[in-house]
Amino acid sequence: MMGKLRSFGPIGLLLVLVTPALADSPGQIAVSSAHELATEAGMDIMAAGGNAFDAAVTVSAVLAVVEPASSGIGGGGFWLLHQPESDRSVMVDGRETAPAAAYRDMFLDADGRVNRDLAINGALAAGIPGAPAAWVHLAEHYGSLPLAELLAPAIRLAEEGFEVDQKYQTLLNFRAHIMLQWPETAEIFMPDGDVPALGTIIRQPDLAGTLRALAERGFDGFYRGEVAERLVDGVRAEGGIWTMEDLANYVVAEREPIRISYRGHELITASPPSSGGIAIAQILNIIEPWDLSELDRVERVHLLAEAMRRAYRDRALYLGDPDFVAIPTDMLLSPAYAAGQRSTLRMDRALPSSALAADPAMTMESDNTTHFSLLDADGNLVSGTLTINLPYGAAYAPPGTGVLLNNEMDDFSAAPGEPNAYGLIGFTANAIEPRKRMLSSMSPTIVKGPDRIAVLGTPGGSRIITMVLLGLLDFIDGNGPESWVSMPRFHHQYQPDEILVERGALEDKEIAALRALGHEVNVRARPWGNMHGVMLNRKNDSVEAAHDPRWQSGGAEVRSQP
Question: Which is the catalytic residue, given 39, 185, 369, 445?
Answer without folding.
Answer: 369
